[in-house]
Amino acid sequence: MSTETVIAFIEQRENEIKKASLEALSVCVKLADKSNKKSIAVLVGGTFDSYDKISATGVRKIIHVTSPELNLYSASAYAEIFANICKEETATLVFFANTLLGKDLAPRISVRLEAGIGMDCVDLTSEGQEFIATRPIFAGKALQQFQVLTKIKIFSLRPNVFPVVTPGSSPDLETVRKDSANNNLAIKVSELKKASGKMDVSEADIIVSGGRGMKGPEHFPLIETLADTLGAAVGASRAVVDAGWRPHGEQVGQTGKTVSPTLYFACGISGAIQHLAGMSSSKFIVAINKDKDAPIFSVADYGIVGDLFEILPLLTEEIKRVKS
Ligand SMILES: Cc1cc2nc3c(=O)[nH]c(=O)nc-3n(C[C@H](O)[C@H](O)[C@H](O)COP(=O)(O)OP(=O)(O)OC[C@H]3O[C@@H](n4cnc5c(N)ncnc54)[C@H](O)[C@@H]3O)c2cc1C
Description:
Elements: E1 5-10, E2 12-13, E3 16-17, H1 19-34, E4 38-44, H2 52-55, E5 61-66, H3 75-88, E6 91-97, H4 100-113, E7 116-121, E8 123-127, E9 130-137, E10 142-146, E11 153-157, E12 174-179, E13 206-210, H5 221-230, E14 233-236, H6 238-242, E15 263-267, H7 273-279, E16 284-289, E17 302-305, H8 308-323
Parallel strand pairs: 1-4, 1-6, 4-5, 5-12, 6-11, 7-11, 13-14, 13-15, 15-16, 16-17
Antiparallel strand pairs: 2-3, 8-9, 9-10
Helix pairs in contact: 3-4, 5-8
The protein binds flavin-adenine dinucleotide.
């Protein structure tokens, strides 16, 4: 086996491993196995008793760097620790999930390793030592294929696009736990509170989003009830966030979050290019709009032309009936 390795950064928040990291790790393991290199998962912060979710991907080595200071993300400390591990382990390929943290950390690692980087990839194929990556450009209007030509290559992968593969724990799995003396914290975050206790749109498998067609914040319970029925997250267009009807954390689009759920409901959303930029890679899109010419229908797999105030309650009731 080559001494070179393929590494995935594993993101934890309050001791929960992010699913998007396991997706990136699954790609890491697959490509490492294919090129006869060791796959390594690196976890920074958190206090884990077992690494079941990580080891189930078939990864060969888990490195967990712990310190109470590292439980919350610190760009400077995480970058230093992770870049040093990549150097010690002779990583030639490094993967991140393209989450908020991944988008912040990956470029810092790229600078430290003098590695080329491809962000927000939705496809990655290998041809010998080279990789052809695909990412959406021009706000999702086109897909660009590109190669990273440096010796060390870094890719961040769009969440919910690559599957989590769980063949089971590798028989020769090696687990290394290191206490970190690195307290190189430019900023110390002492507490992190979520804007709401609800599910985050960037991690949800189903999203129900509302736009200006909802007419006011008092009508959003229609969206919330449908979301609760489906176990979905609530999303919003910028128009309703700017109007103060919904929190910014729910905004989907170019200046909000990029989402790739299996199912996306756009209710009373016209489908402006800036909104589509954040959700057009959803697997199935259902649009409800009273204007049959609304641009959202050009990307929708299922379109309902009609008044959402009539359709949403009927849809919610029908889904409840089918589920029961
Ligand atoms: C630099 C920049 C960045 C931006 N970033 C984002 C972003 O990140 N996310 C984003 O969403 N937008 C973004 N925008 C704004 C974007 O251009 C649109 O203005 C916004 O998406 C419109 O929101 P909307 O679809 O909710 O509202 P509208 O465009 O007003 O659409 C409302 C829709 O509701 C329908 N409707 C009305 N009543 C009903 C009813 N009773 N039943 C059914 N349908 C009904 C209407 O037919 C209409 O299609 C950005 C704009 C700029 C310039």
